[in-house]
Each structure stands twice: as C-alpha cells, then as structure tokens.
Design goal:
This is Elongation factor-like GTPase 1. It catalyses: GTP + H2O = GDP + phosphate + H(+). Pfam families: EFG_C, EFG_III, EFL1, GTP_EFTU. One of its GO terms (biological process) is cytosolic ribosome assembly. The protein is α+β, with helices and mostly antiparallel strands. Helices cover 37% and strands 19% of the residues. It has 36 helices and 36 strands. The strands form 8 sheets. The chain has an 8-stranded antiparallel sheet with strand order 14-13-19-10-11-18-15-16. The chain has a 7-stranded mixed sheet with strand order 2-3-1-4-5-6-7, sandwiched between helices. Helix 8 packs across helix 9 and helix 10 runs antiparallel to helix 13. The protein starts with 5 loop residues before the first helix and ends with a helix. The relative contact order is 0.07. The structure holds guanosine-5'-triphosphate and magnesium ion.
C-alpha cells in the first residue's frame, strides 16, 4: 500500500473513462464515514488500524465530538484491479436531516452513489430521501448493506435468519426503487403524449424521445438491487470486511467445480446444492435445505466470529491456515476479539476491494453521462430543451463528449462554497524543501556567516544587536530578511497581517467539459442568468474581449486563480484539471455566493438549482454582546451565508439579524461557526423564533364543553373581553354574513370585502404550486405591460391548466361558483397560499393568462387602481391581525368596488385644471392615512379641493389631504381585509415536524411520555421485523420541539434518537380569543380560563416578541406573601 503521489493522481485524472465520481449516501449513523475510512486506508492515507476509528472525513471538531458528519467532503483515491487503474473521487455526505442540503451539493457533481444501509435498522426515512435525491439527479446507485456483524453479535441471528433478514431489506429497497421508477415512467409517458400532440400539429415527425409506451414494456430489471447483478455488497465497515457474491462464486467454482456463471445466478436466492450430484436445485424441492448463500457464505463468517468470540484458539488457527492468511503476532494475542476479527477478515475479505470493484464495474464514468441528465441539467424552471437558443443546445454535445481538447468549451459547476482557514491553503503552507532548495539555503547561510564574520571584524560595537536579530528569526524557520526577494517564489506567500486568521473560500466543483486551467478567464453564471438575455444584448459572434462586454445581469467574468485536488482534510495545488473530475477552486468568493455555473462560453445556461429536501424553519435573532461589534457580526453572517448551502440570513423590519436554519443541530453548528470562525465575537442568541400562520375557520358547531352552540344559556356577560375587543370601528359597515364595506378616507371609492376559509386541499395545492404561480404572475404582468408576449411554452401552459383544473375540482358548490376564473391574485408575495377573488361586475381581471383570462377594456383603464387593490391584499396577507404573521388558506372576495365618485371627481377635476392652472406645487399639508380610528375624524376636516401635483401624463395620481389616491386604496383594502378576517373565527396555524423515532421496546413508554408532554401525536407505530425495534411516526409542533431530540436521548439513555423534518402547517383548534360565555363554560374553565388556551399563549408570545400590545394582567389577586412561620 503506497501513498499515492500527486503525480500519479494527475496522471489518473486524464483518463476520463476510468474516473468514478461517487458519493456515499445513507441514513444517519449507518456507517458512511466508517466505510470511507476503510476505502481511504486502502490508499495508505490513514493506517488500517485506525480505519473506522479516525473518521478521517469528519474533519471538524464538532463532527468528531458529536459523532455525526455535518458537511460533504471529497477525497481522491486510487484503485488498481487487473491492468486497469481507476481514480475514485469519493464524497462522504452527512446523514442527519438537518444537513440534507449538503447531500444535494454532493449528488449533483457525482455520476453514481453508494447507498449504505444498516443491516439492523434497515431502510430508514433518510435512506428513502437520499434514494429519491439520487433519482432526481439521474445518478446510478449501488447498495452496501453494512454492519452485518451486528446481526451476529447483537441480534444473535443464525445464518438462516440473517439471510431472510437481508432478503427482506433488499425487497424493501427494491420496492422503493420500484415506486420511484413507476412514477417516473408515468410522468414521462404523460410528457411524451403531450409532446407527440405538439408534433402532430407541427408535423415534425419523429422526436428525440424514444421511451417505450408504458410501464409494462419498460425494462427495469437493471434498476433493482440484487447480489447476482453485482450491485450489492455485504459489509462490516467496523471490522473491515465486505464481499459481493462474485468473490465467492470464483472460489467455489474452483472448489466444487460448478461453473462460475451458474454460481453467480444461484448463490443468492432460494437454491441449494446437492453436493453428491454436484447439482443446484430450488430450495422448495427438498425441505430443510439451506440456501447456498447460507451454506457457503454466511456459515463460514458466523463460525469465524464464533471461534474468535469464544477464543477458540485452535479453531481460529485452523481457519486462518485454511484461508492462507498471515496474522501478526500482536493481533493474534490481542485481548480484544474485535482486533482479531478485523485482522483476519480484512485480509480474507478486504472491504475496500469489494466496494471499489463494484464501484468501478457498476457505476458509470463521466463519459457515460446520459442525454436525459444533460438536458435536465440545462433546463431551468419550466423551459424545455427545444426552447433553448441553438447556441445553447449545441453545448449538449460538449457535455456528452466530456472532451479535453483545446476547442472544447470549459463547463464547471460549483455546487457549494466551503470555508477553510487561509493558512491551510497549500500556497500558504510551508512545504517540504526539495534537495536543490536545501542546497541553496545552505549556500546562503554560508555566505551570510562569512559576511557576518567580515562585518564583525570591521564594526565590533554593533555586533550584539545584529546577532540578536539573526538569532531571533532563524530558529522559527522563517527566511531571514535580506533574502526575501529572491526567496519569495519558493517560500509561502507571506500572509498579510489582517488575513492571518482569515477564512478563505474554496468552491466545491466538477468539470463537466474542457480542461480547467489555472489563470484561465471564465464566465461566472449565477442561477438566474439567462443566455437568451445575453444573446439579445450582445450580437452573435461578439468579437470584443469579454472584459468589454456590456453588463449582463447575473454574469461576471473572472480568473480561475487556484485549482485544488480535494484530499479530505488536505488540498493539493493543481495546474489544470481535465474534464470529469471533482475539484476545488480558490479565488471565487467575490463572484459566487453559494452555487454557480462557470463556462468559457456565455451561451451556456446555468445548471438547474440544487433541490433541497429540507425547508429551513428554525430561526433565531442574533446580536453582538458589545454593540460596537455589529459590523463584525454583519460581515460574519455574510460569510456564514456563503459557506453553508442552506442557511438563510435576513434582517427583519424590526432590525433584528435573523438566522434561519434547518434544525437544532444545524443551528448549533451555524452559531459555532459564527462565533469561532466568521465573526469571532461574542454573540447573544434569542430564543428560537417560531413561525406561525394565521387563518380563519368555519364557525364551530359546538362550544368548549361540547354543547351545541346556541342552545345554552348565555351568561350575563361578565367577561367583556370579546366584545371589548370589538374589532371593527365605526365607519366600517359589517353585514351579518361578514361582508365588510369601507370607503377610502376621501370617500371617493368604496370596497366590499369578505373573507372565507379555503378548503384544506386547495391551500395545499397552492403551496405545492408556488413556483408555477410565480411564473404565471410574471407572465401576466409582462402581458399587461404590453411587453413582447414571449410565447408561453406548451409545458407551462399544460401545467397551468392542470393547476386550474385541480382548483376547480376542489372549489365546487354554490359558494365557490366561478371563483377559479375570478382569481385575481395570490398572496403574500404574489405566490402565497391565499387568494383574492374579484367578483365586482364592472371590472374584471384574473390571473389566468391566455384565453382563460378575460381582460376587458376597463382592465387597462383601471389597471393602476387595480394594482393598488392587489397591493393592499398583499399587505394584508403578509401580516395578519392576530400577531402580524402571514396568512394562510384565506380567500378574500372583493364583492364590490365602487369608483363612480372617483370618476366624477376625476372628470370635474380635469375641467378644473383646464380652467385654471393656478395651483402649483401643493404646499398644503399632506396627511397620510394612518389608522383605523382616524378615518372618521379626518373625513370631517377634509378640505374639498384637491391639490394636484404637477399633472403627469395620462391618469394622474390624485392627491388630496390624505395622500395619493392609490395609497389610500392600498390602505383601505388592507384594512378591509383585516376587518373581514376579524369578524370570522380566527385561528393560529402551527408549523409541524414529522418525526421518526426508532426505539427498542423497553424505552417505548418513555418516548411516548416525552412526545405527549410536547403535544406530539403518534401517527403510526410499527415493529421492525425480526428485531425488537419499534418505528414510531409522529407529528410534533415546531414550537415544542426545542430540546426534544436531547430529551428523548437522555430519557432513553441514547437508545432512541428522533429525526425531525418540517412537514406542514396545522390549525391549532383552540380559539385564541376564546372566553367562557355560557354557564357551563364558566363552571368548567373558571372566569380566567387561560390555562388551557395554547393558541393564546403562542399568540401572546409572538406579540410580545414583536413589541405589540398584549392584553395580560401581570399580577392578579395579589396577596401579601405569608411565610409559614408567620402563619402560626
Ligand atoms: N457494529 C458496527 N458498527 C458500525 C459499523 N460501521 C459503522 N459503525 C458504527 O456506527 C456509528 C456511526 O458510524 P459513522 O460512520 O459515523 O456513520 P455515518 O453514516 O457517517 O453517520 P453520519 O455521517 O452522522 O450520517 C459509529 O459508532 C461506528 O463505529 C459496522 O459495520 N458495524
Ligand atoms: Mg458520517
């Protein structure tokens, strides 16, 4: 085992066909990093004794302490088999859900992946998630079933039981693959059908797609995991062994004399061997026979473990000699049986060979990239490949060829930026000196000595100081002064003082085509860059040097400053990187925020964005301990944002600096990074900010004591709160059915708005389609503005129709008649889960583009005013009346919109203006409408004449003492929406996690106790076959989740650990404004009745945090505190 020299790696990088870019994916703790250790030790980078203990890829201190991986990191390995030599770029990824974004960054730059499954735990939630991610990226998986030793040592299975157990795991994972495959085929078929329709219309004949018609004709056998296919190996990473059945097929074909091909087909499966007849038969022909896998493979391993654990020296020796192994004396005598097992097994069935051979045989090289994957990578959003400009389409060939000629365009994808200490960069590190350099140094030292002697003779008094300095510097290994200029090229670049402890960013990237050369200039394309935009601005075949190009949004031009070979904890400098390799790039931090596409041609599209599985949900506000350190904090947060693919940083309206992270562990890591690496200051962190949503529901049918409402006697209202809060002031009309009618402060326009709860399914559909809604809004607005109506491509149109159909399907009944056609906008931010419906007769406008949207003539006339209404709706949905949180699942219906007065005013005003142009530059005080209570008073003192600002062309923005008319409309609409909500039963919605807990039977009770204390709800409980493990699926409010994982771990002594993933929003059933009103309710809850109102607690907590008014008595029934002694 030789440590690979850099030259060897550089040489291997050039042979693209023998490169494998792979990542290791699994559920948390299934042994990815341990497996990586074993593979790394086969290259001599770490010693084989330390493999599994060191967890080399977990280079962060907190990773080592917590024992979980938190980032993906790459290492290049060399593997030789037969005459072939391979370069394996291995990426270890984290399994914890909080870091699933790191998995996304890894799968994007790989061609294949190793899915690791713990033989005891089997398929877990994250296993499913990573398998899906691999599918979405079109990368091919192979399977490693790890921790087989646990079946022997912990579960004490017999080989036969172990076989059934393993078969079970394989069936489960294949069932999963099957579902993924089926949905994909069906989706493609649907797509193909629409495609063929288009083709029929356009008479283009055959298209590129050649998928066969349907599921039944599609061959999917190669997709499944099966030992006989060679894409499954069984390992115990901790004991250093692993095998695929090929290994045993080879051995036994020689031993028993059955053809290897036959054995390959029968070693896995229900076959047994008739030794006498040398025949292989189906197991059910003769009962009680063991399958080949048990008889020929598992039993051998079991008996070895048995011998070692029982310390049966004789038997061990026998096995060792029969296998022809040599065990060192130290291992043979070692008291720990694990060491012996490791020593024997890692020689007998070396894990690295089993895994790497499978990787090289079964996983594709960069040259095998499929056309399907390339097209998918190139088409962002709803684009189709055919709709890309021809220059862009031409790049597909470059992707497929993965060529290294000079003419090949360089295409690199940066999937994340990671921070490393600038001192750890190879160019800043002192490197070992070469022989020549040592000779040079020696020579210089000699010269210096001679000079010194000469000087000493000439100038005796100065000697001590000079000497002192010389002595001071040289022992530190630094170059002595004086020689600095000559030496600069060979010594580390002196790092400037302030950079001394600075973080430097390296891009985690892969070359998809062309050769990345150091010093080469390249375009950096941000995720929103559009080659169409570029081609529009820059004439075809531009000849100007790229530096002089006109600015194009989301594009920059930069130099590839440093290229690195990623070697786990180390980086090695490279001059160039051939196509198909994973690499690190330095010097991009000013150009790339998180991910980017680099290309030598600007016609390249940016790669599709990484798909992140986890939604960042846990927020905290941070501030420096010393206010003067704010700038450092801001800078640190910027760096943190760049260094983490999924963290979000924002500054709220309140001025708080907020970190949004995927979960508690992620939060902790981000805070540590901020404190220790990026900001380097003390910070204080707020309690987690828990997000809520506000909504309304149908009026409840029963009250809090389950009595039908309306039947009980109302108590003479003692408790006035509900009425006190009477939310609707005068001047606003409220109908009995909740229709709010409001006029603008200048009384020129009147709006009637009603709020209705949307059915749950509709809210869900809206949430799922937010991207589509956003693009639809953009489309409509560009249509309205009369921009060139870019053809909506067929696929988007289909999607929009489908979306509309779904809405129509759920919005049925008299109440919702025509609603879908009348949807005017979605909110907040124009894509949220609330809708604005326009039922007003005289003005019709809807979001649906094309023929469905009936844009009438008035539409254009009223467009600006309409925009104000929509803005009002957006504002209202952004923050609700309960605690200023966004709304969800609410439909606002604009029933009437009376502008007749406004029109009159406008015409008379025009006439006025024509008559006299006297009033210029209105100096009259311009009040702005600012609150619900003011409108009444202000209406009275409103001076009649309007002051017009200098007339603008067309429809002038009317301004009166209440400010511009459009502003008044916005405010009125917003207020009307809020009142409309307040007259309906309001509810809070809480963010919910789904939580998967695996626990053994004996700690189950304690898990349930913790869950119920935190308002969790168990959805499902299953026993894992063949084990005493239970899998519990539960939902838990995010608000109650802080410290949950820790508590579970503590209560169960680490035997159960939950995985929390954000899943959905759920209405909290209790009414935050509820007060007892009937006798029974008083009896039941007492007058105060706030002890059980969870919703009120949440609402008040949010209000308090936001500095809003909270109606709360601080001290109630105050009494003098009496101590016992006084009481006597
Ligand atoms: N018994 C047994 N334990 C193993 C084996 N492989 C790994 N482990 C143990 O499982 C634990 C988790 O191993 P890791 O390699 O850190 O797991 P991981 O998949 O990298 O975990 P994350 O990166 O946090 O997702 C460690 O305590 C390992 O010692 C194995 O083959 N057998
Ligand atoms: Mg790990």
């Amino acid at each position: 085992m030789v440590l690979n020299s850099l030259d060897k790696m550089i040489q291997l990088q050039k042979n693209t066909a023998n490169i494998r870019n792979i990542c290791v994916l699994a559920h948390v703790d299934h042994g990815k990093t341990t497996l990586a250790d074993c593979l790394i030790s086969s290259n001599g980078i770490i010693s084989s004794r330390l493999a599994g203990k060191l967890r080399y890829m977990d280079s962060r201190e907190d990773e080592q302490i917590r024992g979980i991986t938190m980032k993906s990191s790459a290492i290049s390995l060399h593997y030789a088999t037969g005459n072939e030599e391979y370069l394996i770029n291995l990426i270890d990824s984290p399994g914890h859900v909080d870091f699933s974004s790191e998995v996304s960054t890894a799968v994007r730059i790989c061609d294949g992946c190793i899915i690791v499954v713990d033989a005891v735990e089997g398929i877990c939630p994250q296993t499913q998630a990573v398998l899906r991610q691999a599918w979405l990226e079109n990368i091919r998986p192979v399977l490693v079933i790890n921790k087989i030793d646990r079946l022997i040592v912990e579960l004490k299975f017999t080989p036969q039981e172990a076989y059934s157990h393993l078969k079970n795991i394989l069936e489960q994972i294949n069932a999963l693959t099957g579902t993924l495959f089926t949905s994909k085929v069906l989706e493609e078929r649907a797509e193909r059908e629409t495609e063929s329709q288009v083709n029929l219309n356009s008479e283009q004949g055959e298209q590129v797609y050649d998928w066969s018609t349907g599921l039944e004709d599609t061959d999917d056998s190669h997709l499944y995991f099966s030992p006989e296919q060679g894409n499954v190996v069984f390992t115990s990473a901790i004991d250093g062994w692993g095998f695929g059945i090929e290994h045993f097929a080879k051995i036994y074909s020689q031993k028993i004399g059955i053809k290897k091909e036959v054995l390959l087909k029968t070693l896995w499966g229900d076959y047994y061997i008739n030794m006498k007849a040398k025949k292989i038969m189906k197991v059910d022909q003769a009962k009680g026979k063991k399958p080949l896998f048990v008889q020929l493979i598992l039993e051998n391993i079991w008996s070895l473990y048995d011998a070692v654990l029982k310390r049966d020296k004789e038997k061990i020796d026998k096995i060792v000699t029969s296998l022809g192994l040599k065990i060192g004396a130290r291992e043979a005598r070692h008291s720990d049986p694990k060491v012996q097992i490791n020593a024997i097994c890692s020689q007998w069935l070396p894990i690295s060979h089993a895994v790497l051979a499978m990787v090289c045989q079964k996983l594709p090289s960069p040259l095998d990239i499929t056309a399907e994957r390339v097209e998918k990578l190139m088409c962002t959003g709803s684009q189709t490949f055919d709709s890309l400009p021809p220059e862009t389409q031409a790049l597909k060939a470059a992707f497929m060829k993965c060529g290294s000629e000079d003419t090949a365009p360089v295409i690199i994808f940066v999937s994340k930026m990671f921070a490393i200490d600038a001192k750890a960069l190879p160019q800043n590190k002192p490197r070992p000196l070469t022989q020549e350099e040592i000779a040079q140094r020696r020579e210089r030292a000699r010269q210096r000595h001679a000079e010194k002697l000469a000087a000493a003779q000439a100038q005796v008094p100065l000697e001590p100081t000079q000497d002192g300095r010389a002595l001071d510097t040289s022992p530190k290994g630094e170059e002595p002064r004086g020689d600095e200029q000559q030496v600069e090229s060979m010594t580390p670049k002196p790092v400037p003082q302030e950079e001394n402890n600075q973080e430097s960013f390296v891009a985690f990237a892969r070359v998809f085509s062309g050769v990345a050369q150091r010093g080469k200039k390249i375009f950096v394309l941000g995720p929103k860059y559009s080659p169409v935009e570029f081609l529009k601005r820059v004439p075809l075949g531009f000849s100007a040097p790229p530096d002089d190009l006109p600015p194009v949004p989301h594009m920059a031009y930069c130099t590839l400053e440093n290229l690195y070979l990623l070697m786990g904890r180390e980086l090695e400098e490279l001059e160039e990187v051939p196509p198909g390799n994973v690499l690190g790039i330095g010097g991009l931090q000013d150009f790339v925020l998180k991910s980017a596409t680099l290309c030598s041609l600007p016609s390249c599209p940016p790669f599709i964005p990484l798909n992140f599985e986890a939604t960042p949900i846990v927020r905290v506000a941070v501030e420096p301990k010393h206010p003067s350190e704010m700038p450092q904090l801001v800078k640190g947060m910027k760096l943190l944002n760049q260094a983490d693919p999924c963290v979000q940083i924002l500054i709220q309206e309140t001025g708080e600096h907020v970190l949004v992270t995927a979960g508690e562990v992620h939060l902790q890591r981000c805070l540590d990074d901020l404190k220790e690496r990026f900001a380097k200051i003390h910070i204080s962190v707020s309690e987690p900010i828990i997000p809520f949503r506000e909504t309304i529901t149908k009026p409840p049918k029963v009250d809090m004591v389950n009595e039908e409402i309306g039947k009980q006697q109302k108590v003479a209202v003692i408790h006035q709160t509900k009425e006190d809060q009477s939310k609707v002031p005068e001047g606003v009309q409220v109908d009995s059915d909740g229709l709010i009618t409001m006029t603008t402060p200048n009384k020129l326009a009147m709006l009637s708005v009603r709020a209705m709860p949307l059915p749950e399914e509709v809210t869900q559909i809206l949430e799922e389609n937010s991207d589509l809604i956003r693009s639809m809004e953009q489309l409509t607005s560009s249509l309205n503005e009369g921009k060139d109506t870019q053809m909506i491509n067929q696929k988007t149109q289909e999607k929009i129709l489908e979306f509309k159909g779904k809405l129509e399907h759920h919005l049925t009944g008299r109440k919702w008649r025509n609603t879908v056609d009348q949807i005017w906008s979605f909110g907040p931010r124009k894509c949220g889960p609330n809708i604005l419906v326009n039922k007003s007769e005289d003005f019709q406008n809807s979001v649906w583009p094309g023929p469905a949207g009936k844009a009438s003539k008035e539409a254009s006339r009223y467009r600006d005013l309409g925009n104000s209404i929509v803005s009002g709706f957006q504002l209202a949905t952004l923050s609700g009346p309960m605690c200023e949180e966004p709304l969800m699942g609410v439909c606002f219906v604009l029933e009437k919109w009376d502008l007749s007065k406004f029109e009159e005013q406008e015409t008379s005003d025009k006439q006025n203006q024509e008559q006299s142009d006297l009033v210029k530059g209105g100096q009259g005080e311009v009040k702005t409408y600012s609150g619900r209570d003011e409108n009444q008073e202000q209406q009275d003192d409103c001076p009649e004449p309007f002051e017009k600002r200098t007339a603008q062309k067309g429809d002038s923005p009317l301004t009166d003492c209440y400010g511009p008319f459009s502003g008044q409309l916005i405010a009125t609409m917003k207020e009307a929406c809020r009142y409309a909500l307040q007259v309906k039963p309001q509810r809070l919605m809480a963010a919910m996690y789904t939580c998967d807990i695996m626990a053994t039977g004996d700690v189950l009770g304690r898990v349930y106790a913790v869950l119920s204390k935190r308002e969790g709800r168990v959805l499902q409980e299953e026993m894992k076959e063949g084990t005493d493990m239970f899998i519990i699926k539960a939902v838990l409010p995010v608000a109650e989740s802080f410290g949950f994982a820790d508590e579970i771990r503590k209560r169960t002594s680490g035997l159960a650990s939950p995985q929390l993933v954000f899943s959905h929003w759920e209405i909290i059933p209790s009414d935050p404004f509820w007060v007892p009103t009937t006798e029974e309710e008083y009896l039941h809850f007492g007058e105060k009745a706030d002890c059980e109102n969870q919703a009120r607690k949440y609402m008040n907590a949010v209000r308090k945090r936001k500095g809003l008014y909270v109606e709360e008595k601080i001290v109630e029934h105050a009494e003098k505190q009496r101590t016992l002694s006084k009481n006597k």
